[in-house]
Amino acid sequence: MRVLIAFDKFKHALDAPGACAAAARGVRARYPKAICDECPLSDGGEGFANLLTRASHGLLFTRLVAGPLGNVVRASYGLVSVASVPPRVRARIEPPASPWRDSDHVAVVEMAAASGLALVPAGDRDPLRSSSAGTGELLRAVARPDVVAILLGVGGSATSDLGLGALTEVGYKFHDAAGGRVIPLPQNWSRITRITGSAPPQMPPVFIACDVVNPLCGPNGAAAVYGPQKGLALAAVPRVDAEAARLARMVCEYRQLHPDLPKKPGAGAAGGIAFGLMAGLGAQLLPGAELVGDWFELAQRIQAADVVLTGEGSFDGSSLAGKGPGAVVVAGRAAGKPVHVFAGRFGLPQTAWMHPVTPANLSLDEALSRTAQLIERAVAETCLSAM
Amino acid sequence: MRVLIAFDKFKHALDAPGACAAAARGVRARYPKAICDECPLSDGGEGFANLLTRASHGLLFTRLVAGPLGNVVRASYGLVSVASVPPRVRARIEPPASPWRDSDHVAVVEMAAASGLALVPAGDRDPLRSSSAGTGELLRAVARPDVVAILLGVGGSATSDLGLGALTEVGYKFHDAAGGRVIPLPQNWSRITRITGSAPPQMPPVFIACDVVNPLCGPNGAAAVYGPQKGLALAAVPRVDAEAARLARMVCEYRQLHPDLPKKPGAGAAGGIAFGLMAGLGAQLLPGAELVGDWFELAQRIQAADVVLTGEGSFDGSSLAGKGPGAVVVAGRAAGKPVHVFAGRFGLPQTAWMHPVTPANLSLDEALSRTAQLIERAVAETCLSAM
User: Fold this and answer.
1) What predicted TM-score, i.e. pTM, was given to this entire model?
2) Which pick of A230, A356, B18, B91 has the fewest CB atoms within 10 Å?
């Protein structure tokens, strides 16, 4: 029996490789000879660079960069040989007719590693003072002749700065009326009246893996929808949103781009860095879950499996809309395979293929500290009855 | 049946991966179900960086550097995750108690890629004007915080400059009596009276894979033994040898090293770059064939094989002294496995396990142009009769 084990992380409790390993132990407890194909998933946030790089025999590199609040953080990125990039992804990011060589690489960069919410203690979270500059430092670090494309995952960000911090690291400058430099934190935005500079010509093409479809501004914009969960006071949302709209106009004018770019679905991703990098670096948005699935060759692995197991901390309606474990469910069923989902919490009516890993009598704290064990047990029990 | 196919290159005709692939085709022609474990070997020369890097899931990087005569060449080096370096090699190069991390790498650098004889057209070969500076550029390129050790293969070099060219690239300067800078080509050596500068403190430890035991100077020295095959006129040997001895003394005095360092076995390797890097960078010599064998985990792969095939262009007594295919023969027999050697030319009395791939009636030119086909046929015929 071949079992595909494609879990995403259980937030605050267990990373995706840990969840997969726990589930594999659960399978083997019942079927010692089962072949477990462990495929830890990534939603573009924490773990994105590490998982994608490892999956394609790449190398991890580490740099000290500015964290969201300017403190120094250790951020990793990956380089993967173009030849090792799965074909379906290569087809999306390959510049036409490029003569691929042995030493051409794709860089895998993760915004969460440099500008992630998890890097900021809960009490200090404040998008008004948070910058994506560290992500820009990573982009600059991989802008080398051997890098033919940059793949950027933007989940889990702490910032709502339109990516202007990142743009300062690749050559843009923001000025006040007197011509002085302004650090483009949202708290300083009102002082910005002019932009200068540009990205270096040798910047490789940037592709942003992104599933959100929010525009940059308005009621569905970055500040309104994602600001509060990053620590933005609700009272500050209207001001930040208005200033974001003003700056976005300024950026579009400076770069001579269509004024509707901020309305593009996804422009509001990750505090608007999607907009900033589209405008400043010509970055392109790619559907994140699909891209990650292609990177991990999920379709082939589902096809090769007899049973498919997936899971994440909280599984709800939005999961089924096409992200991570939800996409595994959809693809697994389409391929006619038995699929089982394991989650700490289910946010939709439960059916036979949904398996809560948390016993009803367990406190949340206890559940979080024993997640691996709970997953292992739930999988083993499911194996006994349902497969 | 599991067949280990460990060929080195057939010089001027076929690289090691090509030779292994040809032999594998020969095996499969007779035994379609045989499992062929292809293990292309390296003698530290051309192909060293590529083969070692690929064997350990590393990445190749390319740089434009100065070739032996100062022209620009495209040289590749590899980075390999420390975790992927085979344990026996790691044990040799691991600095004690270093906290290995995800993003620690070993750099694999090949002198032949930057300063190789094959980069110089036959008519232009001249050690008096040839520099190892390009190798120094590669060493400088990999002197980065993530590189914890540099492994340097020095086979196939075009130079006889004591590695002084490489040392200029990592911080040393050579001066004439008037204090002016001298490019330390052998033709300029007589003008050098003083050394200044030093290597940067962040230079990672350098390990040189090297099998020759020649000292730097004298009748067994670099100039006398290897100079002529690199294009050095015999008449120039005594002068170059004497100047090399003088400069080596100067280097040892400047670096406050024991004056016998030039006599150390191996100091004369690759035009004396072994001496130069030992003196200037504290490089250490490692037995090359053994190190490469450990890198490829040859012992384990021989153990797992039912039959062992090896080969190279020319196989003679020196091969059996412990290099490449010779070492495979010795280890294969020690493990009690049937071993077959395939070569274009055998320089020792032939026995049943030696198989010439070149039919007697074939011209050398023809043999060189059809090497792959000849290897495939010889292996297929051997399979029929002997295994």
Assistant:
1) 0.84
2) B91
Q: What integer pLDDT is reported at residue B24 of this predicted model?
A: 96
CA dihedral of residues B302, B307, B312, B316 (deg, nearest 10): 90
Residues of B in contact with A64 (CB under 8 A): none
Please judge whether B102 and A60 are an interchain contact, meaning their C-beta atoms are less than 8 angstroms apart: yes
Flag if B76 and A102 touch (Cβ within 8 Å). Answer: yes
Mean pLDDT, to the nearest integer, of B294-308? 95
Q: Which residues of B touch A61 (CB under 8 A)?
A: 103, 146
Q: Do A101 and B57 touch (CB under 8 A)?
A: no
CATH number 3.90.180.10 given to B2-41+298-386: no
Identify the CA nearest to A51 among candidates A59, A66, A41, A64: A41
From the centroid of its chain, how far is CA B162?
16
Architecture of domain A48-289: Alpha-Beta Complex (3.90)
Instruction: Mark yes or no for CB contact A58/B62 under 8 Å.
Output: no
User: Given this model, what pLDDT does residue A364 score?
Assistant: 78
Which candidate in A84, A102, A108 is best for mutational testing of the B interface (most B CBs within 10 A)? A102
- Across chain B, how many H-helices and E-strands are there? 14, 13
Instruction: Calculate how close chain B gets to A58, using CA atoms only, in Å.
Output: 7
Whether the complex's predicted ipTM is more than 0.85 is answered with: no
Q: Three-state DSSP class for B277?
A: helix
Residue B191 Cα, gap to closest chain A Cα (Å): 39
| Per-residue pLDDT band at B11 (split at 50, 70, 90) | confident
Residue of A50, A58, A103 with shortest CB distance to B62: A103
B79 CB neighbours in chain A (<8 A) are 59
Is pLDDT larger for residue A147 or for residue B360? A147
Domain ranges of chain B: 2-41+298-386, 48-289
In chain A, the residue whose alpha carbon lies closest to the alpha carbon of B64 is A145
| Chain A residues close to B58, C-beta within 8 Å | 59
- Asked if B57 lies within 8 A of A61 by C-beta distance, the reply is no
Q: Hey, are the CB atoms on B62 and A105 less than 8 Å from each other?
A: no
The DSSP call for residue A72 is E
Per-residue pLDDT for B97 more than 60?
no
- Residue B228 contacts by C-beta under 8 Å, 6 or more apart in sequence? B234, B237
> Does B48-289 match B2-41+298-386 at the fold level?
no
Higher-pLDDT residue of A346, B283 = B283
Which chain A residue is nearest to residue B76, measuring alpha carbons?
Answer: A103
Cβ of B102 within 8 Å of Cβ of A58? The answer is no
Query: H/E element holding B19?
Result: helix B16-30
pLDDT, mean of each 10-residue run, chain A (387 residues) = 94 92 95 94 92 94 95 96 91 66 91 97 95 98 93 96 98 97 97 96 94 94 94 95 97 96 96 98 93 94 96 83 84 94 89 86 80 93 70
Q: pLDDT band for position B95 (50/70/90)?
A: low
Q: What is the mean pLDDT of residues B122-144?
A: 96
Residue B110's Cβ-side half-sphere holds a number of Cα atoms within 13 Å equal to 30
